[in-house]
Amino acid sequence: MRSALFVCGLFIAMGATACGAEQAGPALNWEPWRHVPVQDGGRVKPLDTLAWETLRTLCNRASFSDPETGEKLNPPAWYLAIVLEWPGWDRAPAGPAPAAEHHFLQRNDKWDNAPLLRVDYLPLRESLGMPSDEKYIAPHALVQAKIRDPQTGAPASFLLWAQTLRQSEPRALSEFERRALNLAGNYWAYQSHRSGKRLALAPAPGGEAQQWLSAAELMKAKYTDATDPTGGLRRLQAKLRQVRAAYQAGSPEEFNAAADDLIAALAAIGAEAGDYPDRAVIDLEVAYNRYAPFRFGWVLTMLAFLCALLSVGTRWKGFYLGGLATFAAGLAAMAVGFGMRIAISGRAPVTNMYESVVYLALGTAVFGLVFEVIFRKGYVLAAAAAVSTLALVLADNSPAILNPSLQPLEPVLRTNFWLVTHVMTITLSYAALALALGIGNITLGCCLRRSPNERLVGSLSRFTYKALQVGVLLLATGTILGAVWADYAWGRFWGWDPKEVWALIALFGYLAVLHARYAGWVRDLGLAALSVVCFSLVVMAWYGVNYVLGAGKHSYGFGGGGQGYVFGAIGLQFLYVGASVLIASKRRSSAVPKKPRPAALRGGSSASRLDCEVPAQVS
Question: What is the number of structural domains in the chain?
Fold first, then answer.
């Protein structure tokens, strides 16, 4: 009886749900909009990418809620909502653009009053009168904001003051001024996107390559038989206006039908213009945005790291095999991500800091897996997984510093041969040296435990030495290839550019470490400590020149931000090394030898020496 009642109740609930769904009716279908090609930033991309990049730039979020309904909108839905709801579409074109924009700022809507613009810099939040714990400001609030000029001390409109900063030399700006100018730039970008100026939907008939018509032009232009002989642009304009009218009327059926007609018309006019991208490439980029293969990669490598630690602690083979399998799966996810970026961009994906960071994670995973398969030591797997996870997490969660967008190449980089041979070789050397960093940290951890396993430390030292050898070989090769490329691009092999100088310093630093180990000047602890300390030279050559010095001919790679975190991490590493050396020194000084070592062992191989001792040359 109870079973019968339960089944009846279940059917009633299912019927009620179905009725409710039927009463709710169809919803706005944003999915086809993801695949609409648009032109922005010098390349053609899906609208999905444009919306995602815009939302990330303005507020560093993956979604945004409607200020009135609270509905969570994905990037394409949010982007189209702010464009279709822009009040300026209802105004007849008259007057200069700045005056018109200011007029409609006074008639701000829900999006202008939404906390959309992210303000990360605390002094800037204080100057704008924001609460210290509030990181977002509404565009309309920023229009009304006043700021005290740091130079003159006089109060001024924030946007007008920022406008004057645009005329200044970037290197002459203070940190506060750079952050303020970046915030103002985000506001101007918001207004440009809202008004449809950045939504370039269709190639201009008879126009130059990369010349596309924006939504603003399509909505406001008055086409005639002379400017639109085929009538295609007028049909496109009518369909775009139908989409907005259906959206404003709140009719999902009409909106979805009008959207399908518009998208089909865009494809038709694009095919006529002959400057429309292949649908397969657009779909691939949408899939790349949706599935985020590098995010899958760091989740899998993190699981591999945990399994490797459990394997070392419990000696259970199941954890080891599980860690090896998940690590290989993480490596495959990274390879898929790189393959997708190559197919989308048509070039090697190592042209900016984001791509070099994820490539370092891939290279470290490759070296770690090779060493692990050959030597079957869980510690190497743990070190490689830790380094790969850290690199991928940083790349995935620092979009303001490590921009993941696919951008057109600078002219000096538009040579795939040198891009592959030089840049990928240099970055691969960083990966091998990063693996040595990870293994060196594990070795120092053994010393911190005060009861090191001498055989284990000896094995880790051999792995560290091999990783350093691979890294130095690749670094030397990449530096030489860079000199040849410099002669090809700039007419000289060497010009003492900061990038060149620091690459040479890093190479000499690691050569000194290898020489010291080969000559017997340092033992296991010394090698581990130096492999960790010397990675700061790589950080300076790789990050410091681009983000701290900001000088030289490698200007295509410059950026900013994150210096405090990077230098803090380096400081913690140095403290870790110092603590390990200090503890090993105390243990060595307090140890009482039971009997003298045989003379045959005093100058023997590194494996025969006491591990975690501090030789006189290091201490």
Answer: 4
